[in-house]
Amino acid sequence: MKKILLSIVASLSVVAQAFSEIESPLEKSVIISQQPVVPPHMLVIFGGGGDLTKRKLIPALVQLAKKGLISDHFGCIAIGRRTMSVDQFRDEVSAFISESDRPFLQQIWNKLFYISGEFESDQTYELLGFSLDQIEMELGTGGNRLFYLATPEVSFAPIVKQLQTHRLLSQDGTLLPWSRVIVEKPFGRNLNSARLLQHELTSRLGSDQIFLIDHYLGKEVVHGLLSFRFANPNLFVESFWNNSQIDHVSILLSEDIGIESRGDFWEQTGMLRDMVQNHAMQLVSLIGMEKPQDFSVESIRFEKLRLLDSIRSFSPESIEKDIVRGQYGKGSVNGIEVRGYQDENGVNPHSAIETYVAATLYIDNDRWRGVPFYIKAGKRLSKKLTEIVLSFKPNVLPVNGSDSNHLESDKLIFRIQPQAEIYWLPNVNDKDFSQQLGRRLLESDAYERLFYEAMQGDSRNFVSIEEHLASWRIFTPVLEYWEAHLPENFPNYAAGSLGP
Ligand code: BG6
After folding, report:
1. Which residue among 36, 254, 323, 341 is least crowded, i.e. fewest CB within 10 A of its CB?
2. Which ligand 1 atom minimizes the distance to the CA of 259?
3. Is the pLDDT of residue 125 over 90?
4. Span 437-474, pLDDT tens digits
């Protein structure tokens, strides 16, 4: 036992080291402030008047400015449907920046612009082209362009088509002047629409121009997970990372918030499309994948895809047995009364959209055969908690007279939120002891990291189209089955509870 614990501690300290010393490609972006300034370019955000821009994207730019990583030759144009002046836009985004970070917002204040227009209209792109020419000349950005599609997924293909028609895209993602396109999720609504989107994007953009973002891949613990598995010099991790030692794997994406002001979006989306098809499946692929041959984009994607391809498909029988959906009703979260999903703004009062999904996945390969992967994702649950737990096979030896039937199994926990930490929870009744065997990681913002990487042209932490297709292949039968068999018991869990 002592040997095992020493090995675990060694593994955890390797994780810690990885964050400070090792410069493997996976950790490259962790030590972001030692990185070079981003190359000259213009960033163009579609959906620029939306929540993501205010809450995440502009704050991420401010953090990059704070670390001295934004070039003098950088500018940002946000495009949104809402009519707003540039000054109004700047004021609106500044409300989301803390007092202490305001000086860094000031550094990019004059580089932020806003254009209002419809995403399908020619006029918008004429105006964008004209503005780009002017601002690029003024700021000396060299013609490099990074487009960010923070819009509903139906707009992705039309925007790229219009950018090409209006000659706003260069032909290359690497050679100067480059053009890259960051695409938000969900990538399509099901397997068919994702294939159509694949066709639309790949007929207009090279593979080095497409950056499919999943912000979970920018999170600290997700990087810690990869370091833990692959930057670890001893063979200890490999010895238990399989079905001989692991009993089951649980992935929890629990949120206490509801759908906020996104009623329209949720009515089109639901939990399976919003967080399971993408965030949860990315976590499954990172836990389950084999060690890549090297840390090139191709090798990492190859192994993630191979894992996704070995996940067992759902049949009507297994849908009934292995995946459940739920929707929150009114209740109380953190002591505050909140309304149910069907009473949220923009939601059909008889809506059958799910705000909760729990599923069991099986991976048919030698490493994981027989180990269930439990996924649970829900809105308006009791608390915000995002974690991956590897539960070991139960200990069969009763120690100190304890009853073997009541022995908990040891657990290895990758907690992503609310704090980023990796720790081992051995089967002992001593909390302090388990805490000694863990590491809290320094958090940096996921969007900041991924923005920086896209600006540098590094797509290792972005998702391939094929991974999305593989994930849709797993879940499209479920979506079709659910559409054909509407739930009769919604809402079926109270806000603030643990789910149905
Ligand atoms: C987004 C979803 O992708 O992830 C949101 O659209 C969800 O519905 C969010 O709230 C959760 O992200 P995080 O980083 O807070 O776990």
Report:
1. 36
2. 8
3. yes
4. 677 776 778 999 999 999 999 999 999 999 999 999 99
- Percent of the chain past pLDDT 70, that is, above it, reads 87
C-alpha 420 to ligand 1 mean position (Å): 16
Residue 248 a catalytic site member:
no
Find the 460 Cα to ligand 1 centroid distance in Å: 21
Ligand 1, pocket-test mutation among 53, 151, 275, most atoms within 8 A of CB: 275
pTM of the model: 0.91
Closest atom of ligand 1 relative to the 446 alpha carbon? 14
> Encoding tokens for residue 326?
């739920």
Tell me, in angstroms, the distance from the centre of ligand 1 to residue 167's CA: 34
Longest dimension (CA), the chain: 79
Please write the tens of the pLDDT for every residue from 353-408.
999 999 999 999 999 999 999 999 999 999 999 999 999 998 655 555 555 555 66
Q: Decide which of 13 and 80 is more confident.
A: 80
Rounded to whole angstroms, the Cα distance separating 395 from 399 reads 9
Can you give the pLDDT at residue 231?
Answer: 80
Edge-to-edge strands, sheet with 421-425: 323-326, 356-361, 373-378, 246-254, 385-392, 411-417, 421-425, 438-440
Ligand 1 pocket by Cβ (under 6 Å): 215, 255, 274-275, 386, 417
- Give me the torsion for CA of 20, 21, 22, 23, rounded to 10°: 80
User: What average pLDDT does the structure give for the chain?
Assistant: 90
Count of CB atoms within 10 A of residue 421's CB?
A: 20
Calculate mean pLDDT across residues 18-23.
36
